[in-house]
Amino acid sequence: MRVVVGDPNTGKVTYTPPGPVEVPVLAKALVEWLNSEDALDLMPAVQAGVAHRQLPLPKTFT
Prior knowledge:
This protein has helices at residues 22-34, 37-40, 44-54; strands spanning 5-6, 13-15. By secondary structure, the protein is mostly helical.
């Protein structure tokens, strides 16, 4: 069984979290982006906002 986020009335799935194998890959990619020139060129508040939004997403609920 896999947990998904969606509308129970319609059955439409709006988000399927990654599987356990994908989580370390996604976390590493986020850290690499946060240390990239593109991210470092952003204002610190924007960097923090992106990190705050993206960090919880790779959690697996299986």
